[in-house]
Specification:
CATH architecture of the largest domain: 3-Layer(aba) Sandwich
Keywords: Metal-binding, NAD, Zinc
GO molecular function, one term: histone deacetylase activity, NAD-dependent
Helix content: 25-40%
CATH topology of the largest domain: Rossmann fold
Protein name: Deacetylase sirtuin-type domain-containing protein
Strand content: 15-25%
Strand order of the largest sheet: 3-2-1-12-13-14
Radius of gyration: 21 Å
CATH superfamily of the largest domain: TPP-binding domain
Length: 323
């Protein structure tokens, strides 16, 4: 295990570009557990009444009223979004990549990356954010910051209901608000979501990780992009002394550019968002490597096995040894 960690540390130090893909296992390692002692501390009353034994199951429970629904969800959001994670896992990760040309794509919705110092222009939260409300219908494609309302509900955390006047309602149609989480077809992708999606795509294009033969000038990380044939590099990267990744020929990368796809805590629930694309991009780019840290779930397909490092261990413990 120590040998693998040292190898990963070396590969990370040599990489010009790091694409981080993060799943729930990363936040679990940081102490955001959804069952056990932490669940009992905040939700024992709901567990007695409804019989569920973890926060995730509670999220699908049909509560008796909106007042009770938001009593549950306000606690849930407060401890998983507005409280800091118990362990410094995200800060350790940031210390490893802060001087790199990085981008993060994550299915996590707890805002831990930004709290640890990651640049919001280099983050794509694909599945929403605990810190946002949306219309439950939805009647329009906008989201709303909820911190003030959640903190007001938190004042009634010793009760299993919040006052009726604190139940959030859509300012447009008056229907109940819901969380901005990708659970079904009602999930709202607002302008910020689309902006982040385009920034991620542009990041991959301007580092020549994916092919974009029509690219000339675009926007990357809020900076103008200069293009030379297939080789594009944002001015921010130039300023920081980062070399462009390799050129692309027939849709594949060639040259000296080194890219690391760094997957952390991604399980089998949503592999099409991070895991499968990371495998595919690694396979198509000979100068790319793939690393995965995931407790008892790290795996890699045979085609990229020689360019991969898989560590089946606690993410936080591994990162601590790398810092």
């Amino acid at each position: 295990m120590t040998e693998k960690i040292e190898k990963l540390k070396q590969v990370l130090s040599e990489a010009e570009t790091v694409v981080i893909g993060a799943g729930s296992g990363l936040s679990t390692s940081a102490g955001f557990t959804y069952s056990g002692e932490r669940f009992e501390k905040y939700f024992s009353d709901f567990a007695v009444k409804y019989g569920f034994h973890d926060m995730y199951s509670g999220g699908f429970t049909p509560f008796e009223s909106l007042e009770e629904h938001w009593a549950y969800w306000s606690r849930y959001i407060m401890i998983n979004r507005y409280m800091d994670p118990p362990k410094p896992v995200y800060k350790d990760l940031f210390s490893l990549v802060k001087d790199k040309d990085y981008f993060v794509i994550t299915t996590n919705v707890d805002h831990c990356f930004q709290k640890a110092g990651f640049d919001k222009n280099r983050l794509f939260y694909t599945q929403g954010d605990y810190g946002l409300f949306q219309c439950s219908e939805p009647c329009h494609e906008e989201t709303y910051d909820n911190e003030k309302q959640i903190r007001a509900m938190w004042e009634f955390r010793d009760e299993m209901k919040v006052p009726t006047e604190l139940v959030p309602r859509c300012p447009v149609c008056g229907k109940p608000m819901s969380m901005n989480l990708r659970a079904d077809h009602t999930f709202v992708t607002d302008k910020d979501w689309h902006k982040a999606s385009k920034q991620y795509e542009k990041f991959l294009q301007t580092r020549n990780i994916i092919n974009n033969p029509d690219a000339s000038v675009g926007v990357c990380c809020s900076h103008k992009v200069v293009a030379v044939g297939f080789n594009t590099l944002c001015y921010d990267a130039k300023r920081r002394g980062i070399k462009p990744s390799a050129r692309i020929k027939n849709g594949e990368q060639e040259g000296d550019g080194k890219v690391l796809f760094f997957e952390l805590g991604v399980g089998g629930n949503t592999p099409r968002i991070i895991k499968y694309p990371f495998w595919q991009m690694t396979e198509k780019n000979p100068n790319a490597g793939y690393a995965c840290i995931n407790f008892e779930e790290a795996a890699v397909p045979p085609k990229i096995e020689k360019r991969s490092i898989c560590i089946n261990d606690d993410i936080g413990e591994v990162l601590k040894k790398m810092v």
